[in-house]
Amino acid sequence: MKRIGLMGCGTVADYGHIPVILNTPGLTLHAVFDPDPQRLRFVQEKFGLANTYQDEASFFASGIDAVTVTSPAPCHLANIRAASRAGKHVLCEKPLGMTEDECREMIDCTARAGVMLFTGFDYRFSPAALQIRQWLRDGAIGDLRSLRLIYIWNCHGKRQRNDQGLLVENARRQGRMDEGGPMVDCGVHQIDLARFWTGSEVQSWTAAGAWVDEYDAPDHMYLHMQHDSGAHSMVEISYSYCHTCQQPVNVFTYDLIGTKGLIRYDRNAKILDMRNQDGVFTMPFAPEKNFAALYEHFRDALAQGGSDVLPTGLDGLMAAKISREATDALVAQCPRGSK
Ligand SMILES: NC(=O)c1ccc[n+]([C@@H]2O[C@H](COP(=O)([O-])OP(=O)(O)OC[C@H]3O[C@@H](n4cnc5c(N)ncnc54)[C@H](O)[C@@H]3O)[C@@H](O)[C@H]2O)c1
User: Fold this and answer.
1) I want to staple 59 with a disulfide (CB 3.0 to 4.6 A). Which of 53, 130, 238, 318 is the partner?
2) How far is CA 94 from CA 61, 121, 197, 243, 244, in A?
3) Domain extent for 259
4) Which residues belong to any copy of the GFO/IDH/MocA-like oxidoreductase domain (predicted)?
């Protein structure tokens, strides 16, 4: 049984990581850390957790084998430095770091400490993502030439009701925009999928963006990536698609075009199909996230001392680097950027 310590008891820990760790055979959630006592109390009561820490040293001394980092992205480097000093393996949420340099330091400090570092790109483990990769490997659509990956949504909306029922600015959304906006925060998943499905490194990229609202970073962005294989990927990400609407809608799709066919995934329509010269092949729909498989692979990596399957620190670095450089280039050009 491997004992996991979790750093950052916020939203994704609450709906994803904590329940999944608790349900993964071979793992136990031994300790959780958060500087916010309210968040600690919330998860302690909700999940019946015994060991909760506001003090990092006590958390690391509690007898854990590995940590999972689910704090906000600007805290990841400090958390990973501390885990390395304590000799603990790390599974870190995306985006791995705020910059390429931060990611390099994470890779270096974990390597020096002799501990493993993995990036929590859970989209890779969705049965839909794995089915798409299988179709590609089987040559079902011939040579993969074009990927169009779209996620446009309201990022929880511009305003939310506070305890008094008043509409106030949504601090969570503002935080995500301050950290770099939709491509840095969400688009890293799509960038990683493009690298995963093509099996090919990104050679060059260009970006375009729009400022729907008053943020430094563009809140609606397009990224065009050219892969070594010759394939092209387009990622479209928005945080301002209906962000002020009473009844928001969203779009989440993958389209992969090959020389002999097409693969489509549509989250809202619940479509996963492949069509080629032989007909249309429909597979059961699956959501885009799969934390359960992520933790099964993390458990196996801890048992075996390595993994051929889990996304690495370098995978996290590549997605963080591309998304950050693309966003920064737009901010530097745009009159609305750095107001
Ligand atoms: N894979 C996914 O699908 C997915 C979904 C949502 C968020 N995320 C990622 O997960 C991370 C957390 O996102 P969230 O939405 O849960 O954020 P959140 O703001 O809801 O929660 C973050 C928690 O971390 C705590 N925290 C603050 N400073 C800390 C520190 N120094 N060390 C440890 N904990 C600290 C906060 O008190 C809070 O409880 C981000 O990197 C985000 O991009 C991933």
Assistant:
1) 53
2) 26, 7, 18, 23, 26
3) 126-289+320-333
4) 130-263
Give the Å distance between the CA of 186 and the centre of ligand 1. 13
**The pTM of the whole model exceeds 0.90:** yes
CATH code, 211: 3.30.360.10
How many Å lie between the centroid of ligand 1 and the Cα of residue 239? Answer: 18
Of the candidates 70, 3, 72, 11, the residue with the CA atom closest to the CA atom of residue 31:
3
Residue 338 in domain: no
Is the minimum distance from the CB of 55 to ligand 1 under 6 angstroms? no
Beta bridge partners of 89: 66
pLDDT for 161-213, tens place per residue?
888 989 899 999 999 999 999 999 999 999 999 999 999 999 999 999 999 99
Looking at the fold, whether 171 and 214 belong to one and the same domain comes out as yes
Q: How many domains does the chain have?
A: 2
237, 187 in Cβ contact below 8 A? Answer: yes
- Contact by Cβ (8 Å): 327, 183: yes
